[in-house]
């Protein structure tokens, strides 16, 4: 693929630059194919289905496959790694347990309180592990980053959003919940304004959650490909060590970012759900 | 890159919830239960250990106290016994001294009395003697020689020593 691209961009410097941009674009975005060595998997194309007047394309795209793989990998990891009948786990099972305990104690219980924290731990563990694996898959050759698709991150953030609304309404009732959006001690005349602002803030929080994960995962990959693209743009072998050095560096950085973003997404989800559960805080 | 694709969002939801459900059933539920159970058992064990330690400490304190009490008691008893012994010793000594004093006084008195008696007897004896001699002298006043003989014989008839 790289070679094809190389031949294709061999003409002029301008064309090269344009093509590098297109190459990066193509690599980052979703597609209906999965490039494996010596095999181009053409993924099934479905006709869009109209749901409430909106055409919804349920085609199995590359990123759909990636999130399936992430979920499958997660399930396999937990099924093989964790032995149910062992009272004290060892090896990989212990590592998983440390992760789960960490999420339960330091993310869930810290942000939601003892009882709710324990209730939401499964959701948060799945958030963390799922996003982490999806992030890391983007760093493995042959796989692509599903979390650099804004629709995937939006899907995940809407889960948080619906969780906050659903459990907020469940605990304080629909009127009580939306009344609690407005901070206490606000003059009655400011209520309509404050309500609108708080509602916008509520939506903005989750949009920010979407954009944060998406932008972080996308940016890293763009940097990575741009650094490697420099070799082709400059048409020089001497650029290669520098480019590769920086690319390796940013790859390492990406490993860190993949973990940190999964962690941040989980912490913020816990925080938002915790806030809607305990409005007084 | 930024185009909205509802299909993808829905696929994400489906995938996520399937993964969440399966993961919960397969691993998370037993895992969290095991963690909680282990934590509970550790907590109860710790509580139990703490309680037992407190109990042992209390027992130790009690024993120490009892030991100290016993020690004090024995000290007190010893002191009392010593006091008693000291007291009785002083008493006995005092009594003995008194008795000795009385005995000595009594002996002195006795001696005095005996002496008195002896002197009395001696005096009577001497009077008798003198009277006897005088009688002999009066009855036999023939001559000086005869008188001398009488006295001598009288004296010879007397016992050699005077015993009282």
Please name the defining characteristics of this protein.
heterodimer, A: 281 residues, mainly alpha, two-stranded antiparallel ribbon, two-stranded antiparallel sheet, 9 helices, 4 strands, 72% helix, globular, disordered N terminus, B: 164 residues, 2 helices
Walk me through the structure.
The complex is a heterodimer of chains A (281) and B (164). With 281 residues, chain A is mostly helical. Chain A has one domain (62-277). Helices cover 72% and strands 5% of the residues of chain A. A two-stranded antiparallel sheet of chain A has the order 1-2. In chain A, strands 3-4 form a two-stranded antiparallel ribbon. The radius of gyration of chain A is 23 Å and the shape is globular. Residues 1-12 of chain A have low confidence and may be disordered. Chain B is an all-alpha fold. Chain B has one domain. Chain B contains two helices and no strands. In chain B, helix 1 (6-139) packs antiparallel against helix 2. The longest helix of chain B is centred in the middle third of the chain and has 134 residues, at 6-139. Chain B is rod-shaped, with a radius of gyration of 62 Å. The model of chain B has no long low-confidence stretch (mean pLDDT 87). The chains are: A mainly alpha (281), B mainly alpha (164). The A-B interface holds A 25, 28-30, 48, 51, 54, 56-59, 61, 63-64, 67-68, 71, 74-75, 78-79, 82, 84, 87-88, 96-97, 100-101, 104, 118, 121-123, 125-126, 129-130, 149-152, 154-156, 158-159, 218 and B 1-2, 4-13, 15-16, 18-20, 22-24, 26-32, 34-36, 38.
